[in-house]
Amino acid sequence: MTTTALPAFHDLMNPLLRALRMLGGSGTNEEIYAKIVELTGFSEEILAHLHDPEKSSQTEVGYRLAWARTYLRKYGLLENSSRGVWSLTEKAKDLEVVDSDEVVRFVRNLDKQEAPKRRPPDETTREFSEEERWKDKLSAVLTQKLDPAGFERLVQRILRESGFVQVEVTGRTGDGGIDGKGIARIHGFMSFHVLFQCKRYKGSVTAGDIRDFRGAMVGRADKGLFITTGSFTPAAVKEATRDGAPPIDLVDGDDLAQKLRELALGVKTELVQHVTVDEAWFESL
After folding, report:
1. Cα–Cα distances in angstroms (integers) from residue 35 to residues 55, 73, 154, 169, in the given order
2. How far apart are CA 198 and CA 181, in angstroms?
3. Contact 57/229 with Cβ under 8 angstroms?
């Protein structure tokens, strides 16, 4: 059944835990989001709703899901790695259903004990973790500071840094929605001709956008690549992988942010690392 009302963040806690169990105990933000959409049946209208259109391309569901992850982490049911992978803790593995009200009470009391002078009463006014803040800032830069030509040059640089060769930007030629082309080299032996479209966008890319892109690329390349600063609707994701049609890989705003950090293109990570081996973690697998 399609859900037509925006869920409260605490209503996403049990779907989040269930999604991670179905994913084998761990998953990326993208995998978790897709599985929760599958489990809950949120409508396209709900999924396209942006949290703050002026500042970020993050959807409201994505925003509230981030708070659900944060609360469950503080409650001891989730942990996340530096690579953005979330996983169930040992405490969560035998827990079928969590009392979301109890989680909220526990975390709010914990916050009051740790920093009573810094915590506002409403969770929607609190600061995100460092991980969320840098992504929002990056999204604002990409959508507000870069013009379309600058974004195309950025995508060109990303593809080159990722191993593509002969990368050309053709977006200003009116070539049926194709913004550029390149050749993806696989381990120096195999290669694929790729056409790409890059959409500097705050909203969600629809299935119609994917169909239009595929129509422009048919017979001209082995694969398509659609890159956006926004997100993709579930229908768009389904259309991109439709049987019998040329495959199109999708890169949303979160994927783009992670790639820019990985390649250190305009995003710097400053860490002081102390590496330890957690024997108990390996024993729990």
Report:
1. 26, 19, 30, 34
2. 11
3. yes
Domain boundaries, the chain: 9-127, 141-263
C-alpha to C-alpha distances, 66 to 84, 175, 203, nearest whole angstrom: 12, 38, 18
Encode pLDDT of 101-138 as tens digits.
999 999 999 888 876 555 444 444 344 455 567 888 88
Q: What strand order describes the sheet that includes 223-228?
A: 164-169, 180-186, 190-199, 223-228, 248-251
Q: Alpha-carbon distance 162 to 178, whole Å?
A: 20
Question: Radius of gyration (Cα) for the chain, nearest Å?
Answer: 20
Q: Where are the alpha helices (DSSP H) in the chain?
A: 13-22, 29-40, 44-48, 60-75, 90-93, 100-114, 130-140, 148-161, 207-217, 234-240, 253-263, 279-283
What three-state secondary structure class fits 64? helix
Amino acid sitting at position 252: D
Global model pTM greater than 0.85: no
Structure tokens at 10: 């605490």
Domain 9-127 belongs to what topology? Answer: Arc Repressor Mutant, subunit A (1.10.10)
Q: CATH top-level class for 141-263?
A: alpha beta
The pair of three-digit structure tokens given for residue 128, joined into one six-digit string: 């995100």
Is the CB of residue 192 less than 8 Å from the CB of residue 222? yes
